[in-house]
Amino acid sequence: MKRVSHWLVLVTVAAGLLALGYGGPAGAQPQKTLVIAIGADQTGLDPQTVQNNESGFVMSTIFDSVVNYKPGSSEVGPGLAESWTVSPDGKVFTFKLRRGVKFHDGTPMNARTVADDLDRAINPNNPCYVLARKGVDTYDDFTFGSVTDNTVAKMDVVDEYTLRFTLPDPSAPFLSSLAMTWQGIMSPAATKQYNCDASQHPVGTGPFKFVEAVRNDHITLDANPDYWGGRPKVDRIIFKIVPESATRMLMLERNEVQILADVPPSDYARAQNNKALQLYRQPGLTILGVAMSNDLGPFKDRRVRQAMNYAVDKDAINQGLYAGATTASQGMPPVLWGYNKGVSPYAYDVAKAKALLAEAGFPNGFSTEMMVYANPRGYNPIGGAKLGEAVQSYLTKVGINVKITQYEWGAYLDRFRHQPWEGFAITGWSGDNGDPDNFLGDLFEWDIAKGRARTNNTSRHHNPAYDRLLRDARRTTDQTKREQLYEQANKLLHDDAPWIFMNHTNQVRAARVNVKGFLLNPLQMFFHMELVSLE
Amino acid sequence: MLKFLRRRLLQLAPVLLGVSILVFFGMHLIPGDVAQLLLGDKGTDADLQRIRHQLGLDRPVYIQYVRFLGGILHGDFGVSIRTRQPVIWEIGQALPVTVQLSLAALVFAVVFGLLIGVLAARYPRSALDTGSMVGVLVGVSMPVFWTGILLLLVFGGILGWLPLGGIIDGNLGYRRMTGAPLLDGLISGSWAVVGSSLRHIVLPAVALGSTAMAAVARMARSTMLDVLGLDFIRTARAKGLAERRVVSRHALRNALLPVVTLVGLQLGLLLSGAVLTETIFALPGLGRLAITSVLARDYPLVQGVVLIAAAVFVVANLLVDVLYVYLDPRIRYE
Amino acid sequence: MATAGTVALRTSRRLAALSWRRLFAHSSFVAGAIIVTGVVAAAAFAPALAPFDPIEQAFTSQLLAPSRAHPFGTDEFGRDIFSRVIYGARIALVVGVVADGIAALLGVVLGVVSGYFGRRVDAFLMRTVDVLLAFPYLLLAMIVVAILGPSLINAMIAIGIVYTPQFARVVRGAVLQVKEEDFVEAARAVGAGSLRLLARHVLPNILSPIIVMATLTVGFMIVETAGLSFLGLGASPPTPEWGSMLATGRSFMLTAPWIATFPGLAILITVVGFNLIGDGLRDLLDPRLRGSR
């Protein structure tokens, strides 16, 4: 009998384990905690030294930049600087900083401390010079220019609350770049204390203070009661890392989390049909497409590229795979200024596609390859492979036989960016600073000086008239004039059809209905979380 | 025995050396290096060159290997490229979670595997036997991640009995000490922490342990059947001992030996299973660290994780061999 | 020549154990054979059985629940899941057989060389096998696939390599046993060369553990390939491979669970079938292997 009791104990323990489940989450909590589910972990929280979205999500709650984006917008508004002036030649930017603001560690924020932090972006002699640190991925040269090219900005502390930047060439996008979360201002004391690397101990001036980060589990932030923009309305934010999207959705439904940073199209309906949940959508500052090798194969002919654009039903794919959460693309995101309203996306027109192919000498079509990757990207929530499958299916109907090869992401980048591939490749882009040059220039411009495509012009698009427009636009300070130049470039780009322009993915997030004051931002970060409350 | 231990520990060195060579050159053969992945679909060629140079990736691979090996011999596993934190620190964060999960899975596998196997053997060819063996076969034939998703959906989602992943309830104010919440809860005497971590570990342990459980059950059943037919059992029965006592006292003990072997083998499989289980259940363990670092080509971190995993595997198997001696007096190591 | 006669006799005795009558008296073998025959039939007659083209897309009929027209429903591309599952049988079988073949071939070469030549060669090869065993197998498979590039054939190679050490160990053990037997000693005494000895005397006598091992692992290989697909390292789209259907369907688990459920069941049933056959063969041919994976 003694032995039997052992088994009994086991069974009882097993039952007990299950019974524990009925207890539910432990008791009420005194403070208001907002839990945000994200799909992957941050890799560090020092703004100047990282570039991934998840780090950005967290940093956008901890840091302010010299200027900030206005709530829910990619327009630049006051940040640590209350006001600023730009010289008529577009080269000198002068910022008046706020008084009485302190970093979370008590260090006063003023022109000197801000300059101390930004010095590591532009001064190679700074012991913490960012570009000299091992394996750092930074926007510093994007924003401030490069020391090696002699294009770097000069920074002066004019007085205790005045900071001035002088650029060698006029650069209108400078202000937008300065607002990026990647240019958030870190307390120079923290950088010093942690030996140039405060990425695990971030100290900013923002609405939330860093408390702790547990790798692949969560990041905890507490409200900064002294925030200059007003005391945050929740006491604590926890970013919880949950890799599986279905799990994230269930957690939201069970109120274990209150906001989902990414919602895949497959879950839109479920969120919309639940009265306790709200789906947030905003046209994204992104573009998604299928790049073609503009300099190789049949794609050298513009008519072939246009035919490919006519052959694919963007609206059907939008409805079918993206649950209607995208806008068909004509080459430029409609939310971006400089977008040419007179240019519309290529219509779905099989007859026209076939005619153009025949004209170009391919009446019977041709065979080619397509490179895809499996993982989702910010500009493509379903991953590259599914889009490739859909496009392949449409192209078959105009006689184009496409063989799809799937690559792992790293291998994909290696092939796509550094090898002279021929055929199709899934591609896309998320805006960095909200300036048209960041799309039209980065993605489709030819580097005249070096005589080759710019790094991110992976389709090797080359049109001298287009390049001239972009160069002129960068040197112009007059906003209206710039806008006109970009509109012209947009038209040229559409006609050149270097990609199959697919769509602009909406930014989609979901939250419990008791979350109030939550605004999406086109730059996809969690800006202005001090305005969010839990009812 | 000591001699045997020494010889086996000495064998550890060449195996780990082999593993390190395999992982180092394997990782460097994968197209797309860490610099490329850091930059993603952004960045310039100059950035790429700069990062490659800073990390020494522009040097010949064998020189990189020698430097890496030199570091290891001095106890320096290097620094994660992506997070710039020491590899040892990253592993130290993740390892306790995976150890806790693996042990829980193992306990589940052994306890339920033995229970099912022994019961099935006691009533061979009964409905209980057939039923449990079919169930076990299904368990061993399901992809781990599929089992995980279903468990999560049913018990976490639809029934709502158990948590939807994670290691512990975030509201408990849990502070990590050892990093294994169950142990931490016991140490600090916080029953809330213990209860919460138990509830969190049930589903992943079942998902991860189901394959091993099936293997244990099948093994236990067949060895029990063999043993129950042997002379000494017949003797025991003839002596008039109750069947229950025969089974538990005499047969079970003899059936344990192959089960122990099996457990040793399964230990090596658990980490690989943990890669998928930890992803499904959002557990911050070594498996997830391994997969994210392979995908990011975070070379030092991958090397560290694989070396640790290999060492754990080898040592666990050594322990199994040692355990033999206590379970089976006939075995002697010279 | 007398020795050759003995070998023939012994081998035929072993294989005699495989008589159809004995096999069909074994209930799990029969159950497994029925299942696997069904899968093979589905694969062979896929074009006749499948009501739709497995890769034909129709955005007008996407995410339909199972119905008479689409017994297993449709996926997010409007493709018929029943047809995809049927065609998927072809791929699963190829995956299982090819990966298994690779593992068996490499394992036999390693095991035979190691067991037959012994000493240094043995020590070296067995350390290599230890290294492969100690390496977390999923990471090993990931790294191999990542080097070769994700595709079905590369996934098969990776899984094959991962299972090689297990075959090598079993084969080595069997070779060591056979080597000691009188008839091999005798053949060596009459001056048979190594290759001849291996081919004529050793290999035929280690066939049964290899067969048992191979049937027992087919199922696992199908499951592991699915695991690689889960990590985005499997078949290239739009191949109707069960693992990738299951993996991509999991994001629809809450809204359209049939997308992942049916391929999941297909994997389960096929793997159960192979395991049942494996169990049966093992019981009849090589009880020593019982309980091993």
From TrEMBL, chain A:
Residues 75-444 form the Solute-binding protein family domain. It is found in: Cell membrane. It is a lipid-anchor. Gene3D superfamilies: Dipeptide-binding Protein, Domain 1 (3.90.76.10), Dipeptide-binding Protein, Domain 3 (3.10.105.10), Periplasmic binding protein-like II (3.40.190.10). GO terms for biological process: peptide transport. Keywords: Signal. One of its GO terms (cellular component) is periplasmic space. One of its GO terms (molecular function) is peptide transmembrane transporter activity. Residues 1-28 form the signal peptide. It comes from the Bacteria. Its main location: membrane. Belongs to the bacterial solute-binding protein 5 family. PANTHER family: D,D-DIPEPTIDE-BINDING PERIPLASMIC PROTEIN DDPA-RELATED, PERIPLASMIC BINDING COMPONENT OF ABC TRANSPORTER. This is ABC transporter substrate-binding protein. It comes from Candidatus Segetimicrobium genomatis. The lineage of its organism: Bacteria, Bacillati, Candidatus Sysuimicrobiota, Candidatus Sysuimicrobiia, Candidatus Sysuimicrobiales.
UniProtKB/TrEMBL annotation, chain B:
Keywords: Cell membrane, Membrane, Transmembrane, Transmembrane helix, Transport. Residues 95-324 form the ABC transmembrane type-1 domain. It is found in: Cell membrane. One of its GO terms (biological process) is transmembrane transport. The keyword Cell membrane applies. It comes from the Bacteria. PANTHER family: DIPEPTIDE TRANSPORT SYSTEM PERMEASE PROTEIN DPPB-RELATED (PTHR43163). This is ABC transporter permease. It comes from Candidatus Segetimicrobium genomatis.
UniProtKB/TrEMBL annotation, chain C:
Residues 89-278 form the ABC transmembrane type-1 domain. Its main location: membrane. CDD domains: TM_PBP2. This is ABC transporter permease. It comes from Candidatus Segetimicrobium genomatis. Belongs to the binding-protein-dependent transport system permease family. One of its GO terms (biological process) is transmembrane transport. It is found in: Cell membrane. InterPro entries: BP-dependent_transpt_permease (IPR050366), MetI-like (IPR000515), MetI-like_sf (IPR035906), OppC_N (IPR025966). Keywords: Cell membrane, Membrane, Transmembrane, Transmembrane helix, Transport. GO terms for cellular component: plasma membrane. The chain crosses the membrane at residues 29-50, 91-117, 137-163, 206-235, 255-278. It is a multi-pass membrane protein. The keyword Transcription regulation does not apply.
